[in-house]
Amino acid sequence: MASASLQFFAFILALFGVFGDIAATLLPHWKVNADVGSNIITAITQMQGLWMDCTWYSTGMFSCTLKYSILSLPVYIQAARTTMVLSCILSAFGICITTVGMKCTRLGGDTDSKNNACFAGGICFILAGIFGLVPTCWYTREIISNFLDQTIPESSKHEPGGAVYTGFISAGLLLIAGVIFCSSCFRRQQGAWIYPPKQHHFSSTEQESNAGYSLKDYV
C-alpha cells in the first residue's frame, strides 16, 4: 500500500513537471528586458523565447514576432529548442507508461510486466528531466555572461524570465518522479531476490502415505 501511494505521489509530481515543461517550452519569457527610459508612460518590456519575441508597451499594446529562420538563431537557442521538445516527448511517454505500470491501476498484466513498465517510465522521466535541465542551465549561463559583459550596451542586456525558472522547477520534478519510480521497482526486485518464494518440502512419511494411497487406488 505504501509503494502504491508513493508511486501515485510521484505520478502527480510528474504531471506537474510535464505541464511546466510544456509551458516553459512555449512561453516567450526566457529573456526579459525592461526599458523604462525617461518616461514611465512609454515603458517597454521586451521578452524573448525559443519560438517568438514579444514586446509589451505600458499603453496596453502587445505584439509578438515568430522566429521563422532556424539557422540564424544562436547555437544555445537551437539546442534549447531540440532538448526541450525531446523533454516534452519523453515526459509524455513516461506518463503513458507509468499509467500502465503503477500498482494502483489494473492495466499492464502481471506484477513483473507492471514492474518493468514502471521502471521504463521512471527512466523516461529521468531523461526528460536531464533534457529539460541542460537547456535552462545553458540559457541562464548565456544571459549572465552577456549581462556581465562590459562591451554590451545596457539596452541589449537581459535577465532570466519566468520560463527559465519554470523549466528548472519542471526538470526537478521530473527527476524526483523518475527516481521514485525506479527506486520503488528496484526495491521490489531486490526483495524478490533476498526473499525467494518458499518451497513446500514434504516429509518421508507424507510421501510414503501418498505413494501408498496412489497404489491402492490403482489396485
Automatic annotation (TrEMBL):
Signal peptide (from-to): 1-20
Membrane topology: Multi-pass membrane protein
Protein name according to UniProt: Claudin
Gene3D superfamilies tied to this protein: 1.20.140.150
Transmembrane parts of this sequence: 84-105, 117-141, 161-182
The encoding gene: Cldn20
Keyword Transmembrane helix set for record: yes
Keywords: Cell junction, Cell membrane, Membrane, Signal, Tight junction, Transmembrane, Transmembrane helix
Gene Ontology terms for molecular function: structural molecule activity
Predominant subcellular localization, coarse grouping: other
GO cellular component terms given for this protein: bicellular tight junction; plasma membrane
Function: Claudins function as major constituents of the tight junction complexes that regulate the permeability of epithelia.
Family: Belongs to the claudin family.
Taxonomy of the source species: Eukaryota, Metazoa, Chordata, Craniata, Vertebrata
Entry's localization field: Cell junction, Tight junction; Cell membrane
Pfam families, per the entry: PMP22_Claudin
